[in-house]
Each structure stands twice: as C-alpha cells, then as structure tokens.
Records
---
Amino acid sequence: AELRFQQALALDNPDIYYKDRDYPKIYQLYQQAAHRNHWKAMLNIASLVLSDYAVPEHDPEVAVRWVEKAMQLGVPDAYDMMGTYHQNGTIRGGDATSAYAFFQRAAEMGSPSAQTFLGYKIAGTYDDPNGEFWGNRTIGTQMLECAFAQSYGLAAYRLGFLYAGEYSVAEKTRARTVLQEGIKLG
C-alpha cells in the first residue's frame, strides 16, 4: 500500500504542470493503496474524485465513502474532511452545526488543521452576532498552541498574529518567536 501511495505521490508532483500529470494513473495507484487501508490514499482519492482533474469518476458519493472508510479507521483528518463536506454542501443536509461537530471531533483526536480552524474561530475577544467568530480566546489560543506544537504552519501564522495583537511585551515576544518558527514551517 505504501509503495503504491508513494508512486502516486511521485506522479502527482506539484513541480510538474498539472496538465502534464497522468491523473488516471495517479487515481489507479491511490485506489490500489486505499483498498489496502492506506488512509492517506483514501483521503487523496476522495479529493481527486471531487476535483476537476481527468479521473475515472467524479461522484461525490464515492468521495464520501472513502472518507467514511478512513473515519472507521479512526483517522482524525478524515473527520476534518467530513466536516468540510458538511460545510460546503457535499453532504445533503449538511450545515454548519454538523460540520462543527466533525471539526470538534477531529480536533479532539489531534488533527492540527481542525485545531487551527476551530482555535482561530473561537479566539475572539467577543462574540460576532453574524457567527464568524466566537469569544473564547483562552480555549482558542490553547487549540492553536496545540496545533503549533505539531509543527503545523498555518497554526503558527494564526497564533503569531493573535499574540501580535496583544499589548504585553511577553506576548509580543511570543508572537515574534511563533512567527519565526512558522517561517521555518513554510
């Protein structure tokens, strides 16, 4: 499974112009790895199915089934992806409430992307009546710190700017440190 996954990654190289990539072959290799319970291949094939690339199928139900299979394996990023599917309407009847339940589960399981998303959304100093963010800065900061501790670059970006907006010298210093580490993370 890992060999097939690595072969697919090599063909899906971002240094190769996307129109020059062999997406049917990439799809086939990811599918072979996914059938052997390679969770990263499952999530990649789900993304390919929903993409505009020339792959054999573009059925959202297929993408959802692959993500559900990864969820059954206990993969935090699968819960995060399912939250995205609920949020963007890929799942019929999905809404922000169901999406946030999946994001919360992913964050609890340790997904740095879910922790960053939720941490940023709840790190406000007050609640936004339109629902864009909520005022729970302490918990939001803790979630961002947890994602940053996992070397997640976007968390460093969000956390650094959160600290930069504070007034104390200690928090400004922390902001500089976090942002410098974020640069190393890309």
---
Amino acid sequence: FCEYFIVPYVLWFFYIAATVLYFAFFVDDETEYWNLIINLGLGMTLFLIVSYVYPNGLTIRPREFPRENVFTDMVRYLYRIDTPTNVLPSIHVYNSVAVFCAINSCKRLREKRSIRFAAFILTTLIILSTMFLKQHSICDVATGITFSVASYIVIYRVYDKTTAKEKHHSTI
C-alpha cells in the first residue's frame, strides 16, 4: 500500500476526459476519434458484461493506514465512494491503455515524442496506482490490459484495414 498513488489514480479522470476532448476538437482524422470512442465504449460494455456474468470483488484493502496525511484522507474518501466490487477487469487499466494506444497511434502526435512518452508514464502510474491503493489485484490489471490490447488490435488493425479497403473499392 502506498497512499501517494492516489494522485495518478485521480488523474485518470482528467487523462481520459482530456484525451477524448483533444481527439474531438484537435485531431483532423475523424477515424482516429471514432476509434478511441469505440474502444472506450467497447471496454466499458465488456466490463458490464463480465460484472453481470461473473460478479466479483476483493478484500485486499488495508484496515488501518501506516501513516496519517492528506493522501490517506483521499484514499479513505475513495474507499467510501468506490466499493471493492466488480473489479475484474479494471476499467481504470482498460481505459488508460486504450487512451495511450490512441495517443501513441495518432498521426498528429507522431512527432510529439514528449507527449507520447508522458502518456506512457501516466498510463503506467495509473496502472500501478490501482494495485498500490489496493483497488485491484494483478489479475484485474492483467485482464484489463489483455482486453484493451485485444480491442486495440480489432479496432485499429482489423477494422481500420477493412474500412480502408471498403473506401478504396467504393472510389474505383
């Protein structure tokens, strides 16, 4: 347990929102925006299906905190508002990886290595935060990453290529 990881955990909300807004208003390629939106929507839908079919939960949260500070107060608040139920797969992890993949594959950001690197670091810290705050187990994280990578392959690789072929054939 490390209460300081509450910072990247909370930053997740801004990370997801800022990325969606950036893709909506500043990315010229509409396909990139829709790939991101479909990927996020697919992940949240998969999460709901898994939670319905396989209700799950964890009991790994600490009963007492090793230190008293503003960060542990924030974690206490988090624990009050977010129960440790239906944690597999981790939606924090899924969405973070999905957003990173969108940023990393974005044509407009291809030359912006610092932004892509910062997104990688923030994604990594968010993933770690889910475990260091005892919100998720390694299994929840692994499942979130696996689902996100699988959906990335389907949406960005398979779907994009199919759509590109259809557009090409319709112009002939």
---
Amino acid sequence: MADRPTLSLDEALKSYISILKEGERREAQIEISRFIRWCGRDRPLSDLKPPEIGTYAEEFGGASTVDTKRLEPVRKFLRHLYKNG
C-alpha cells in the first residue's frame, strides 16, 4: 500500500476553506492563517504535535470569552483534519 502524500499546513487550509459556507470563510481563514503562520506555513501537517497546539492555545487563547472564541475556527479546522485523516 502506498503512503498518502503529506499536505503542508497551507495546503490543508486551502482545502478546508473550500468546503466552508461562504459566511464562515472569512473569520475562519483569518484565525486559521494566524495559527498556520505561528506553526510554519510550509510545514508538513504530519509534523504537527498536540503539545504545540496546546502552546498556541495558551499563548493566543487568552482568558476572556472573546479570546477563547477566536480559537474556535482553529479547533474546527483541526477536528476536520483529524476526522479526515
């Protein structure tokens, strides 16, 4: 069985954004792009580790409801990637 090619985080974002409803795209793209810039845009998706995601959430999630809400598009993106392999 051949290995599936590994997407970069940027490629994964483009694929994910294309399936969102038009009204969700702008906010999702802004927040997920921020996360991807922090991780490294050309970084292979397979290199992303859970502790790094936690560090990002701690640094950018903040304590307020508004800050926490900003992480929701990133959570949905990561959940989508996990569910779709």
---
Amino acid sequence: ECPAGGLDEYGLPNACGLALAEDLVYQLQNQFDDEILAAWDEVGVPPVLLKQLIRQESQFWPGTWGLYHWGLGHVTYSGAHTGLLWNYNLFREVCIYTYDGQCRGIDEMLIYSLLSFFNAECAECENQLDIEKAERSVHYLAETVLGHCNQTSQIIYNVTGRPADEVVDYVTIWKLTLYDYNAGAPCVYETVK
C-alpha cells in the first residue's frame, strides 16, 4: 500500500511503512514476554535485563546469524560453552537431551546441542520460524546468562578475595554479567581489577 513497498532508497522503512507495521512491531516485541517472565521465576534472570538483551542482540528474531550467532540472544559457541561450564543445571539438562545423562564433560557435541536449542528457523513453518521452539529457547537463554553471572561472581571473588555480594550491588553484578556475555571473562577480570 505504500510508495516503494514501504521502503526508502536505502531499504529502510519510510513513514508509510513504519505506520503500517506499527502493530506488528509491538506484537513481535512482546511475543516472548510470558517466557521471559517464566524464566525470571524458574532461573532468576531479571526479566527487563533478558528482554533488553534480546532486543539488543536479535531485535526479537529467533534464527541464526551466519555461522556464529544463534537465536534470540545471539549466543556464540564460546558463550554456550561458558553457560554450560558455569551453570550445572544447564549442563545437566543439555547432557540428558544429548547423551541421555551420560556426559563426561563439555564437548563440542554438547555445545552444539545447546546452540541448536536457540535456532528456531524452520523451512516448513509459517514465516519459516518455529515459534514454539523460539519460546522454549528463552529458558535456555536465561540459563546461559545465569552461567555468565556465576562466572562473573567467581571473577569478582578471584580479584577481591570476597564474595560478589560483598563487593558489588545487584545492578552492578548484572551489568558485569552482560559485559561477560558480550566481551568475555578476561575483559571483566581487567575491569574488576
């Protein structure tokens, strides 16, 4: 209905395109709210943090991005490894799924199994997305983020010799967790130091 199909010369939405897509944008931005709130209850990751992470990383699109980023949280291979290493509940869940509970440690197959939980692309599904799988992936994303939080807490202890809750407040531990999630443990270590 819009001039140029609702796009400007750079492929960005024009005013007409934005106006017509507004309701759909709100729907897409809120379609995982129930799962995000459930993850707060089940895992303990703050819902606003999790939703803003999803917004920033994937703009609510639950597919893969190239060979390196999976799902709503754009989880990487290294990020999945960290989640499995620092969150035993996540490790156990993925181990049961992958090896029927008979894991001897974290290996490549276990990491790729976790990453596969995040990819909701589906050629035969409506809009080529399996929305139910995307909804389930929110739980695993929260568990992965919690693994990064556990690693961040250990880094704080390693630097200061004191438990994280004696050194930083609630907001700061989550800020450092997001830093760990995006930049990695060495950067968090140097920052805390």
